[in-house]
Amino acid sequence: MSWLLLALLVFVFQAGTILVLEYRRPANAMAWLFILFLFPIVGFILYYFLAHEYRRRQKVKRRGGWDEQRRAEILEKSHIVNQASDLPSEAFTHQDRLFRTLRKSGAAPITGCNKSRVLTNAKTAYVAMMEAIRGAQHHIHFASYIIRDDDTGRMFRQALIEKAKAGVQVRLLYDGIGSYKLKPSYFEPLTEAGAEFACFFPLRPTFMKKRMNYRNHRKILVVDGTKGFVGGINIGDEYLGKHPRLGFWRDTHLELEGDSVYGLQEVFLKDWELASNERPSDPRFLPMHECAGDEPVQIVAGGPNRRADAIHETLFASLAAANERIWITTPYFIPSAGLAMALKTAALSGVDVRLIVPLIPDTHLVHAATMSYVDEMMSSGIRFWQYERGFIHAKVVIVDHLLASVGTANMDLRSFFSNFETNAILYHPDAIATLEEDFLQDLKDSRELELSTFRKRPRKRKVAEALCRMLSPLL
């Protein structure tokens, strides 16, 4: 009996440790307790290496954040929007609280001198990105969560090699887990051409340093400091619809010119420093530019190296301010309690809340967790569609005619609190209208879920969804 008592004491100690360390996030605590219950010793070891630093991020924070000198230079060169009345939508004159939140959330400032282009799907995005790369004169800064060694990956590699041989500075950043299949042979031609590359938090070293949970999920391209790209599209053949199971791949990317590119450049340079321990500096990284357009754009970066969860905060403030509509496209839907409540109360107040999620999942566990939220959301009046044409990977949020967000962050807890992510908030009516047009087309390519039918799904699926729901904060 003594060994049973000892085992019980060990389990209580492990559970107590998790509860104490995760007191700020009860959902995380419940997920880890569930794992601990299933795997008493192994679960605690996994917790130690994967989650021990969820709220102990000072070491990363000290190296993150904006460099003050660079920040001052960016602010000096940018055209900052300081008043709600300076935004194109007249409705913002009645949204003073939202405007103040967006300005002070920890995101970059709202800049007013920009030109944006919505790039619908990878075929369009790749053409624009390749054109920008081939036109580079000084530097190419490229970060992608996933880079495949396939036809698409080799096409981009060859373009980078050609520019590096021509004397252009080339820096390529990839994530240690997202691109874990990449072999050294992929980078050898880049190195020979004079290009630089860095792996963001490689798998084995970061596991021992308890940083494996922090992934760089960004997809950023900055060319000559004047043109930038950000969105949901990685580098691989599957984004062109060549995945044998998923088929057609629906995604959204942005091309930006103007002040907002400074924000993307700042994000890349900080990530490069974190991954390579190098701090490249060149006045031409932040060049003066002619005003490309009059569109207000705000770059919102989130991650463990930021003092605030800016993406989550700006999204919550935007949803809470909605009066007419909230249209969301996301491949994964695992909202925080705050965002879930914001969506439900908006729907109950008469706001048109619509979500498009995949019918065909790329990750079955996350999809099951996503579907576990559908019943309670639909019960509040939120409408769900499932995309039927293929797999939908776009990350788009449209709020009234006030603003729209496009970027790398999914509507899930990992993107909000653990990953390094970047979104762009668009305020111009033309940009919002383009995203609205895409959303309406996606609705035509989707089927709406009916609550009564959804509740008749097999009990086996309901159990699977409930189990994945418990793990959802970690997915």
Automatic annotation (TrEMBL):
<keyword id="KW-0812">Transmembrane</keyword>
<dbReference type="GO" id="GO:0005886">
    <property type="term" value="C:plasma membrane"/>
</dbReference>
<keyword id="KW-1003">Cell membrane</keyword>
<keyword id="KW-1208">Phospholipid metabolism</keyword>
<dbReference type="InterPro" id="IPR001736">
    <property type="entry name" value="PLipase_D/transphosphatidylase"/>
</dbReference>
<keyword id="KW-0808">Transferase</keyword>
<dbReference type="InterPro" id="IPR030874">
    <property type="entry name" value="Cardiolipin_synth_Firmi"/>
</dbReference>
<dbReference type="GO" id="GO:0008808">
    <property type="term" value="F:cardiolipin synthase activity"/>
</dbReference>
<feature type="active site">
    <location>
        <position position="395"/>
    </location>
</feature>
<feature type="transmembrane region" description="Helical">
    <location>
        <begin position="30"/>
        <end position="51"/>
    </location>
</feature>
<dbReference type="InterPro" id="IPR025202">
    <property type="entry name" value="PLD-like_dom"/>
</dbReference>
<dbReference type="InterPro" id="IPR022924">
    <property type="entry name" value="Cardiolipin_synthase"/>
</dbReference>
<keyword id="KW-0444">Lipid biosynthesis</keyword>
<comment type="similarity">
    <text>Belongs to the phospholipase D family. Cardiolipin synthase subfamily.</text>
</comment>
<feature type="active site">
    <location>
        <position position="400"/>
    </location>
</feature>
<dbReference type="InterPro" id="IPR027379">
    <property type="entry name" value="CLS_N"/>
</dbReference>
<keyword id="KW-1133">Transmembrane helix</keyword>
<dbReference type="GO" id="GO:0032049">
    <property type="term" value="P:cardiolipin biosynthetic process"/>
</dbReference>
<keyword id="KW-0677">Repeat</keyword>
<keyword id="KW-0443">Lipid metabolism</keyword>
<keyword id="KW-0594">Phospholipid biosynthesis</keyword>
<feature type="active site">
    <location>
        <position position="393"/>
    </location>
</feature>
<dbReference type="Pfam" id="PF13396">
    <property type="entry name" value="PLDc_N"/>
</dbReference>
<feature type="domain" description="PLD phosphodiesterase">
    <location>
        <begin position="212"/>
        <end position="239"/>
    </location>
</feature>
<keyword id="KW-0472">Membrane</keyword>
<dbReference type="Pfam" id="PF13091">
    <property type="entry name" value="PLDc_2"/>
</dbReference>
<feature type="active site">
    <location>
        <position position="224"/>
    </location>
</feature>
<feature type="active site">
    <location>
        <position position="219"/>
    </location>
</feature>
<feature type="active site">
    <location>
        <position position="217"/>
    </location>
</feature>
<protein>
    <recommendedName>
        <fullName>Cardiolipin synthase</fullName>
        <ecNumber>2.7.8.-</ecNumber>
    </recommendedName>
</protein>
<comment type="function">
    <text>Catalyzes the reversible phosphatidyl group transfer from one phosphatidylglycerol molecule to another to form cardiolipin (CL) (diphosphatidylglycerol) and glycerol.</text>
</comment>
<feature type="domain" description="PLD phosphodiesterase">
    <location>
        <begin position="388"/>
        <end position="415"/>
    </location>
</feature>
